[in-house]
Write a structure and sequence with these properties.
mainly alpha, Fatty_acid_desaturase, transmembrane helix, membrane, Fatty acid desaturase
Length: 367
């Protein structure tokens, strides 16, 4: 494991011993479970090397199935077959899109050409180029910013009003329209009106859920990546917008429906990625871990709605740079070593529905 993976684990902090029952975030708001952090470091020293063959194969197969399913959904005259193909396409493209999360953590030299390949095959065609996550997601992992108003990926959903949960999920249905407007309309307009470009960059250039987040201007090599990715996505969005003039509305509408389903799946995953119980105070590493969610085996369905290692989201917060393909083995070792009743067990949950129920009950209890 490299230093990035262990920087959260190696802090010298007071030890909080294991306890009976399941650990909670509130118990570790000011003190870490040093035993768990040390175990996470020591038991995974031989893991952490990104394997290009796994990344490329997984991404290419997922994207290929997704685009094939989309083509079948568009061309089939049988509505039942079209719907099945659209669902398969949405699930496959969802998995392909989720590699954007890996791009923010894995060193570029570990996967030569992967960022460029992913952007050309997935990011730009689906109007989610990697710049929309790079430089943003890392803030979510910063020791003093997680769960605070500065965190672009945190909202205290469990502390909000009950109606906020369905609104949070359903607004994702509008993602295709919002991205088309951003890239096909606002980006070209911003080329002539700097104020529009600055506004779009600050407010609509990050895959964030915190409405108060304002993105800082890009600099250096990152700025160059932003320019070509944004230009390519803008040209593609304009082509999509004009395509009904050449074809008809069916391909665009079906593609939008598939992308909308993909966006809703991601929003549902986001809803249960954390317990969302922090009220804005800085948290210890252990508290961040326990506010995050693992949905480990034996359940299998989590691999569909939390792909590319995201079913081990809490473990990911302990080891942000651990490649997704090593997370199952890291979880297995920690689960065996720390055992029942450990702090580590406190982040393990049964599935999406129990988690949604827990968050929903919390919003109602607090009214």
């Amino acid at each position: 494991m490299n230093t990035q993976q262990t920087h959260l684990i190696a802090e010298s902090v007071p030890t909080v011993s294991r306890r009976e029952g399941i650990a909670t975030r509130a118990q570790f708001q000011t003190n870490d479970d040093k035993d768990m952090l040390r175990a996470a470091r020591d038991l995974t020293k031989d893991l952490g090397e990104a394997k290009p063959a796994i990344y490329w194969t997984d991404m290419l197969v997922s994207a290929g199935i997704g685009y094939l399913g989309m083509a079948m959904a568009i061309m089939s005259a049988n509505w039942a077959l079209s719907i099945v193909a659209a669902v398969i396409a949405s699930l496959a493209l969802y998995r392909a899109v989720m590699f954007i999360h890996e791009l923010t953590h894995i060193r570029k030299e570990a996967l030569p050409g992967f960022r460029l390949g992913w952007n050309l095959l997935v990011g730009i065609p689906l109007l989610t180029p990697s710049f929309m996550y790079e430089g943003v997601h890392v803030i979510h992992h910063k020791r003093t910013q997680y769960g605070t108003v500065e965190d672009p990926e945190y909202l205290p959903l469990a502390l909000m009003k009950p109606w906020s949960l369905p609104v949070f999920v359903l607004v994702a249905l509008l993602a295709p329209i919002a991205l088309i407007i951003r890239f096909a309309v606002l980006v070209p307009l911003g080329f002539f009106v700097p104020a529009v470009r600055n506004f779009v960059w600050q407010r609509f250039s990050a895959l964030s859920i915190n409405p108060e987040f304002r993105r800082k201007p890009p600099t250096g090599d990152f700025r160059k990546r932003v320019l070509w990715q944004e230009m390519a996505a803008s040209l593609w969005a304009i082509a999509i917008l004009l395509s009904p003039l050449v074809l008809d509305w069916r391909p665009v509408l079906i593609a939008f429906a598939i992308f909308s389903l993909t966006a809703v799946l991601n929003q549902l995953r986001t809803l249960v990625a954390h317990l969302w119980e922090n009220e804005g105070d800085p948290m210890t590493v252990t508290a961040q871990f326990l506010d995050s969610v693992n949905v480990p085996p034996p359940g299998r369905i989590a691999e569909l709605w939390a792909p590319v290692g995201l079913r081990y989201h809490a473990l990911h917060h302990l080891m942000p740079s651990m490649p997704y393909h090593d997370l199952p083995e890291a979880h297995r070792r920690l689960n065996i070593e720390l055992g029942t009743g450990s702090t580590y067990e406190g982040a393990n949950h049964a599935g999406m529905l129990p988690l949604v129920g827990r968050i929903a009950r919390s919003t109602m209890i607090r009214r």
